[in-house]
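Protocol step 4 of 6: structure prediction from sequence.
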Amino acid sequence: MRTARLAPALAVALAGMSLVSCQKEGAPARTTAGPTGGSAPLAFDPAVRIACVIGPAEGVVPHELAVRAAASGGNGSFAFAWSFGDGASASGPDVRHTYAAPGTFSVTGSASSGGASASCRDTIRVYERLINNCRGFGARGPAPLRVAFVAQANYCEDSGCRFAWDFGDGTQVAGKGLMRPEHDFVAPGVYDVVVTAQTGAARDTCTVRVEAQ
């Protein structure tokens, strides 16, 4: 009797059947000998492909995550399952989940169709709150005084923060990723420079004092 190595997605009971030949996953089925001597097609599911959208990838508690998946291949009928890394799970192609505590979580989605499946994975970072730190270099000296500022939030690496600067002399600038502006203080005076970092609903402010003499 000849034997053939089965593809991983081929999960069928072969009791009473003599396997003649088998093709790799996704190819048309060949004929096998049936238990009564007749011929029966040996069908197996082609590979499953999955595409996932998972985000936002970072945020503050309570952080609402949206996940969505689409699949192809298999037998055309799919079962979707999600694991959110905090002990919670869900099913369906379009799901939302809220993280109530900070931490780093591994989110896994899978699509199963017959004997075949595929999965996707991403990492979610949830913080207690947004913290914005700032500093001014050369913030004290004779006017006109040029000061280089730096703002850095504890998370903005994936989603990006919008930084709004108020230099205290009537000048304001804002923009996504605007972390290192420079500003000239022409007139002598004491200026409180306020920078606000914001991403989604999270925001925090930081102040730098400038003394132009």
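Step 5 (inspection) to follow. Residues 132-212 form a domain with the Immunoglobulin-like fold (CATH 2.60.40.10).
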